[in-house]
């Protein structure tokens, strides 16, 4: 392999992070909490156009805390998307509650509001509503919150948004993360902007944010000695990492534009080939295209998703199948599932292409060459 490896979604620094990180380092605030964390929380809330933000150690920690703040615990059920990364449902499992998985809709690949309506109706008839609904915004695109918010309102079940993959997305003029009682973001190394590791919890409710900060610092009561009347967590973000996140946040709009331009390039370059269908972006949605995803119809395209993946691997290019639905994961065997086989089909035929904001024109062209490489050439390679 003579050419550089092309990664799926590598970190992309702007240059500002280094100075901020050194400033934090030299200030000796080498701690969870500090001026960089405070500044990040302000700037993050401003970037989302309001609300309050809490900087945490990971997106998973944000999800876990959000559920704890809603009182989710053993014996409860939480309705969630089946097509997502395991972290979504792991956070539910940490509370002792059981996830109930719902299938995707074709329009957004996100949780199908029809199935949410059915499940909530069944739960109401049983006299046992879920404690929360945790909806994922997949691959940089919001779910259909017009319908989802109305349903959660109707049944008075709190909504939490897992926007870990969708910082910068907009749905009907509102930014991802600002639907429901709380929104959760990830600043992990593969996300659209990164602190290397970190997460943000956002809410309109200052009391929820105050309680989140309290629980995230071991639930220490105000007293001169160490006094605890509740179980807490060590979930705050390092001041050093908050400095990196601040530098990244400055270039978020540019990163969204670059990822969308990757998508536009792939779409144009592959338009003439039948059997490749890109993840749709319905009216009202402004996705970030965190990852460019498509599904493959092997009968039309002439090669399967796995054959394309193999060809890209041979060319030192990273690609990944779409998430394996959680209702099919051994770790969640026995959890309730409502739906058909939409998510399963997306998993079997869906492919995520290299989508980093630092992808060069030459690299994008290499990816397209790899996708179009003929099966016969694969044997010769
Ligand atoms: C990345 C991700 C998370 C977890 O975020 P971490 O910061 O890695 O803990 C949660 N949900 C989804 C959908 C994700 O993609």
Outline: globular
Low-confidence stretches: 375-381
Tell me the number of structural domains: 2
Taking the alpha carbons of the first and last residues, their distance comes to: 11 Å
CATH architecture of the largest domain: 3-Layer(aba) Sandwich
> What hetero molecules are in the model?
pyridoxal-5'-phosphate
Please give the radius of gyration in angstroms.
21 Å
Mean pLDDT over the full residue set: 96
Describe this structure in words.
By secondary structure, this protein is an alpha/beta fold. Helices cover 39% and strands 15% of the residues. It has helices at 16-26, 35-47, 59-69, 86-94, 113-126, 145-155, 206-216, 239-249, 252-269, 298-301, 305-314, 342-349, 361-372, 375-380; strands at residues 52-56, 77-81, 98-102, 132-136, 159-162, 170-171, 174-175, 182-186, 199-203, 276-278, 285-286, 292-296, 320-321, 337-338, 350-353. Strands 1-9-8-5-4-2-3-14 form an eight-stranded mixed beta sheet, with helices on both faces. Strands 10-12-15-13 form a four-stranded antiparallel beta sheet. The protein is globular. The chain binds pyridoxal-5'-phosphate.
Show the helix and strand layout:
Elements: H1 16-26, H2 35-47, E1 52-56, H3 59-69, E2 77-81, H4 86-94, E3 98-102, H5 113-126, E4 132-136, H6 145-155, E5 159-162, E6 170-171, E7 174-175, E8 182-186, E9 199-203, H7 206-216, H8 239-249, H9 252-269, E10 276-278, E11 285-286, E12 292-296, H10 298-301, H11 305-314, E13 320-321, E14 337-338, H12 342-349, E15 350-353, H13 361-372, H14 375-380
Parallel strand pairs: 2-3, 2-4, 3-14, 4-5, 5-8
Antiparallel strand pairs: 1-9, 6-7, 6-11, 8-9, 10-12, 12-15, 13-15
Bound molecules: pyridoxal-5'-phosphate (PLP).
